[in-house]
Amino acid sequence: MSRALAVASIIALWLLSLSGQSAALELKETPYLADQVAAGTLAPISQRLPRTPYQDGMDEWPQLQPGKSGGSISLLMGKAKDVRQMVVYGYARLVGFNQALELEADLLQDYEVQEGRIFTLRLRPGHRWSDGHPFTSEDFRYYWEDVINNSELYSFGPPRALLVEGKLARFEVIDAVTVRYSWDQPNPDFLLSLAGPSPLYIYRPAHFLKQFHPRFTDSKTLQGRVALAKTKNKTWTSLHQRNDHQYKFDNPELPTLQPWVPVTAAPAERFNFVRNPYYHRIDPQGYQLPYLDQVIINVASSRLVPAKTGSGESDLQGRYLSMSHYTFLHEGAERNNVDVRLWRTTRGSQLAIYPNLNASDPVWRALFQQVDFRRALSLAINRHEINQVIYFGLALEGADSLLPESPLYQPQYRNRWASYDPSEANRMLDALGLTRRDSRGVRLLADGRPLEIIIQSAGESTEETDILELIHDGWLEIGLKIHTKPTAREVFRNRVFSGDALMSVWTGLPNAIPSASMSPAQLAPTSQQQLQWSQWGKHYETGHGEVPDLAAAQQLLALNDQWRWATEPSQRQAIWQQMLDIYSDNVFSIGTVARVLQPIVIRRNLRNLPTEGLWNWEPNAYFGVYRLDRLWLDDNAASTTTLTAGGS
Amino acid sequence: MRTDLTGQALREHWVTDKPFDPQSIAAITPDQERYYFASQWQLIWWRFKRHRLALVCGVFLLLMYASILISEFMAPYALPTRHTNFIYSPPQPVHLIHEGEFIGPFVYGWSPTLNMTKLLREYSEDRSQVYPLAFFCKGDPYQFWGLWQGDRHLFCAPEGATLFILGTDRLGRDMLSRITYGARVSLTIGLIGILVSFTLGIIIGGLAGYYGGWIDSVVQRITEVIQSFPQLPLWMALSAILPVTWSPLWVFFGITLILAMLDWTGLARAVRSKLLSLREEDYCLAAQLMGAKPHRIIGRHLLPGLFSHLIASVTLSIPAMILGETALSFLGLGLRPPITSWGVLLNEAQNINVVAIYPWLMFPVLPVIVIILAFNFFGDGLRDAADPY
Amino acid sequence: MARYILNRVLLMIPTLILISFIIFVIIQLPPGDYLESYISELESQGESIDPLQIDMLRKQYGLDEPFLIQYLTWSTGMLHGDFGYSFEYGLPVNEVVGDRLFLTTVISIFTIIFTWVVAFPIGMYSATHKYSWSDYSLTFLGFLGLATPNFLLALVMLYFANVTFGTSIGGLMAAEYINQPWSWDKIKSVLEHLWIPVVVIGTSGTAGMIRRLRANLLDELHKPYVVTARAKGVPPFRLLVKYPLRVALNFFIADIGNMLPSIISGAEIVAVVMSLPTTGPILIAALQSQDMYLAGSFLMFLAILTVIGVLISDLALALLDPRIRLYGEPS
What we know:
The complex is a heterotrimer of chains A (648), B (389) and C (331).
Chain A: H1 3-18, H2 31-39, H3 45-48, E1 54-55, E2 72-77, H4 85-90, E3 95-97, E4 103-105, E5 108-114, E6 118-123, H5 137-148, E7 163-164, E8 167-168, E9 170-175, E10 178-182, H6 189-194, H7 206-209, H8 219-228, H9 236-242, E11 260-262, E12 270-275, E13 281-282, E14 294-299, H10 305-310, E15 316-317, H11 326-336, E16 338-345, E17 352-355, H12 362-368, H13 371-379, H14 383-391, E18 396-397, H15 411-415, H16 422-431, E19 452-457, H17 462-477, E20 481-486, H18 489-498, E21 503-506, H19 534-542, H20 551-565, H21 569-586, E22 593-594, E23 597-603, E24 606-607, E25 614-615, E26 632-633
Chain B: H1 2-6, H2 8-11, H3 23-26, H4 30-37, H5 40-50, H6 52-67, H7 71-74, E1 95-98, E2 101-115, E3 120-132, E4 134-144, E5 148-156, H8 175-211, H9 213-227, H10 231-240, H11 248-279, H12 282-289, H13 294-330, H14 342-349, H15 352-356, H16 365-386
Helix pairs in contact in B: 5-16, 6-16, 8-9, 8-11, 8-13, 8-14, 9-11, 10-11, 11-13, 12-13, 13-14, 13-16
Chain C: H1 2-28, H2 34-44, H3 51-61, H4 67-79, E1 85-86, E2 91-92, H5 93-97, H6 100-128, H7 133-147, H8 150-165, H9 184-221, H10 224-231, H11 236-242, H12 244-248, H13 250-265, H14 268-274, H15 279-288, H16 292-320, H17 322-327
Antiparallel strand pairs in C: 1-2
């Protein structure tokens, strides 16, 4: 391989960056770091930034304005492990989504895709890790050769996102800042997984991790490190893995590229993150981002988060809040100097019911596979009532399909089989031959069992119980009785997988605002986690499980494959439309309401977060695409409240 | 007792100059005769009656338990009834006097307005509409004991009006009705649970106490192991292994059994130690010498001496069971909706929204407190009365 | 006496072995293992994880080994101070508990003091004024604490403390003092927060204490020596304090066995509601996420404390009562 070349070019780069190359814009030193620069312990800004930093134009929306560097905010998380949300919120990715949900280079200077299968990634020359070491193609090479292709470290083989049809990509280091991945066939998921909220990391801080790798460290030194390690197994692989959690974000020693760097080691109740002095983005005035010097995460039980937020103990909070907390949060807003904004969730449905097409009971399975049965169930849900009772009529009623925010949205998918029409539903069930009823008016199956269904739920929110109670009444009208069975989460999934659960309830489509370039896999049986056809999904994932035997499901799978081959946007668009059409016509999941309001609490003088936004894991990475590194504290605002108010 | 302690009555010493009749002490008055020949239970009853509060509590508990037999009739609405136009209604005031005129209990018209800036439903009375309450009226139909259809309620809302004396919850269900139905589950869980732990405790403790020796040692070890276990993980583990296919009713029994299985140790220890001391009493020795078999001695001589104590300690542990159920529900291990128990209701109230905005949803805490207080005072009275000699 | 002690100590060994086995069985009883609950937790937030990685972790954590092997590794490890590894924290168990143990002890001791301060006067008063209205109303107050479900009381108190005094909700100190070295301001902040859990946990214990003290005192007050002392003119209060109260307090000694573990574990449910930095929430979270070594070792620790506590109280009672020494165990 071209390792020698890579090393040579690192040295070249190092020299280059020392010569103090600067962009056309005049760079200004960050006040927070000025002392360290003056004392000589930190290089001046011109040498910390890449030669071509990402210059944030800050012009996507009118109120977005360059701000002032400094200050800190604190937020609340339910568990110490949730510090990983800082990677989600921080959202420094090789390529990432912008607010319009288009992919653009972020850590990368640029990238090039040929035939949908050859990806050339170019780094920013002079880009550095948070400890000041250059970020180069060596970091990619280390990951490729010494991590995933090391049979001890990755004994189960490389991550599946790097395989297409079971074949690993070819990896080349072109020069110190350029790498290339090529597959034989198109890999449309590659860039998407780099941009994901929990991204695929195809690089590692090689200079840091080499000290734990036998190839780069002599065995005696390594043995010593292994012996001291706080790992379960005293092996170098455990030690390496432990120090290598870029997503967990709990290792202050691990260099990072995120806007804020962790400084508190777990276990703790309060985690500090300070600005990364080598972060690659600057604002239009020439100040380095992020504006905020510090982000503090306080850990409190998730049940208390709404209460604490309502008493002003969080400067920016969305997680653990739900629409039902709005009234309470609103009451405290004035007193605590915060704003409560209403964003929207973007799942296909806040709550969807999944008939288990892979149920182990043959009679039920056959019934669920009847499309008219699923349609009848959907018609018998009074979505308007659910909306009025639980969401003040502010949610969007309809099937489990895309939302108007998506460029692929068409109202017919959302409205199909989603109007409340019990008499039509009754007629359809009669036509299916379910005409006999018992004394309670519950229909009987062909073998004489009543149409009583136990719906498995993970039983975590009262919202879920409430919606199910409303559905219960509607379905009783068409002669179907449901019982809700709350179980622990892990039991819940296992019962669905084994086919014991007849129906389950969970959230709807994970991403209901996709564009044609995003994968439509969520509409086809592609994962065991899909509750309506987990066995079929398992088959797609692993080759075990059952082969889909329903025409519509096979069709969806075929279309999903076609989408993967397609490289033209228009082709992809057409395939998406076809899949949406099949999915909603077959009612594979029964939707209720969507676009539910999500309260976001924000300190009043915290600028640059939009008033309206979308709150979801994928693709927005919650606050991620709104770029928290742009947030700044406006001292001139009327409020003078201290940041950690409420603390006596 | 009281005067003894303060010492008032004992300060003055004086001698009566009446003639002394030595027979006056030995002779038995009719009152004394009644006392000496009374059975143990009678004595307990007499002593118990002196404890006024305990007596009141006992009657109250009896009424409560009687009421759960007819929850359907007592509750103004049926359990599943929802009023989707009256969500989060605060308690609706019941009035007696309208414009200076007494017309018995009545409610005014009651209607919500939506406050869309706060996302809050605000309720107001319409003073122009007067709806006198109806008693023994026709209301929501119900299946009484699964036997026959009924629709009579003790009281209910008049035609065209609503009656939410304790307000409604997030689906517009009447809190008073839910509490009334919840009592059925919460009160029986205590009773059934205690029955099981009582039986276990008596049998195991009795064996250990009477036979002693190795049986005693084994039982002692087992109780020690169970008691040195923090209860929480036991609850969690045991309720996790309840089969998922069980219907809510069976889960209910399962939980009761779990509570009981952990509760018997205390009782067994009490039975054992009491038996150990009673066994040494002379009357026991006498029975043995006369050739009585062990089961006769336990059943005829030892248990009666024990029973009063046991009943007292049982009444004191029923509240623990009721509280245990609420705690289990809190951990998400106990009963869960759609079953309605006080624990489930309280768990739903365990929410900052409720505390700050909908405080009436915390009403279920009142019956819990009242019932537990009543059991405690009743049990205290019983215990004081238990040893009449 | 030495023989009696030896006997008791030797008896502890099989008990502890039995307990350790039961603990391990019980934490393994719920279906699934740590990784399954980890996956489903990620799923509920919309995240997912590569199945290959899970297989790797399962192997690494030794979760694929048979039950008995896992038990033996854990139990023999404990003998030389290795309490296993917490999957959730990715740290050896000893390092997870950290200074939470200290804060738990602080809360527990304050709670015990609170309970005694409230229960003592009430218990004494209501024993000497049996069946009076003041007796009823004081015991009523005591029972009120017992009857109110703690978890609800905790939330209500948190909310109102915040609204009226501006105390931050939950936790044991204002956020800015966490991770800071101890200082006066930090202690002040801790005291500001401490009273809520102390009152909430304490109120549930006072009723039991009042009742026992009252019952024991009543028993003593009947005894002839009290009458004799009174007849000899000992002032009432002195009479009460000097002998009956001391005898009535014997039950405290018998209670050490229960007290020791509860000092360490604290009141778990209240601690969870209030998000206290104590050991309770760790234990509950570990049980829920099936972080089995953390849960198991902590439970084992509690069980050992109970057994030691029982031993101490037995020894103390034996010292006080020669009959027990001679005939074996106290009843």
